[in-house]
Amino acid sequence: MLGIVRNSSADRAPDKHQLKALLDGFSIEVMPRTAAKIAEFKDLLPTGTRVYIAHIEGTPIEDMVALAKRLHRDGFRVMPHFPARIIKDNSTLEDWIKRYTGDAGVSEALLLAGGVEKPYGIFESSMQLMETGLFKQFGFERLHVAGHPEGNLDIDRDGSTRIVDEALQWKQAYSERTDTEMVIVTQFAFHAGPIISWSERLRTMGMTLPIHVGIAGPAKLQTLLKYAVACGVGPSLKVLQKRAMDVSKLLVPYEPIDVLSDLATYKANNPDSLIENVHFFPLGGIKASANWAVERIE
């Protein structure tokens, strides 16, 4: 495999310049209930940071839009989630889009199927949301879609990647057909190898969409293990399990320095890679992830 980093960054000091280059322009995810605990996002994040708003099942759209409005007012690029399976119909989708564009100045979104097993209505996938034409109609300039470097057994139950690969190829064709700016943002992982291999495989398939790599921010090991199992993280989960067997590390908060250092080195050696940026899942808290990232780009 071309350009894969062979040596773990645990065996060497990370290159600060390479790490900064990868982290510049990072994005982060929040929810209305966690954002309510933050007095001023401007004290945590650089102006212009892209902030995703996760739409968890049961969250009122009014709470989502209120947070989007707050973040937009404070100078951030707001990207709300549109989980297809909790959107009942075209009317609901249009209502949400109008609320975001009209009340909060939003023109970007992350489209995903969502973790609900039984759809609320007519939508099951992000592709169906795109096919409505409503995002284009109401001026959404940028759409992000989900990527799964370690596969997704909820979609490809046979352990292959056939369905997720076909979906990404469809989405790239949509971006070209509609002139929509599109990015793949991935599920979080704990080892660079699977991410790099996956990005190179997409390239051999003819994919050109940039990849923003999902990374779990600093957190207690027990917290990460819980989320990793719940979210279906693949082989890189072994990195956490191995760490959990080391009593000296069990109580020390996990930091994503190894995976990011390896990705930064790979990106520096392969500037044409599809890997473009980093997206933080702040599983250990927004402040912890934001402070950790900002310290490494200053």
Number of helices: 13
> The biggest beta sheet, please?
8 strands, parallel, barrel
CATH class: Alpha Beta
Task: Report the helical percentage.
Answer: 40-55%
CATH architecture: Alpha-Beta Barrel
How far from one another are the termini? 33 Å
Record field, number of beta strands? 8
Which strand-content bin applies to the residues?
A: 15-25%
Strand order in the largest sheet: 1-2-3-4-5-6-7-8
Short structural description:
This protein is α/β, with parallel strands linked by helices and 298 residues long.
Summarize the structure in words.
- With 298 residues, this protein is of the alpha/beta class.
- The chain contains 13 helices and eight strands.
- The protein has helices at residues 16-23, 32-35, 61-73, 90-104, 126-131, 134-137, 162-178, 192-204, 221-230, 237-244, 247-250, 257-269, 286-295, and strands at residues 27-30, 50-53, 77-83, 108-112, 142-147, 181-186, 211-216, 275-281.
- The chain has an eight-stranded parallel beta barrel, surrounded by four helices.
- It is globular and about 55 Å long.
- The two termini are 33 Å apart.
- Residues 1-11 have low confidence and may be disordered.
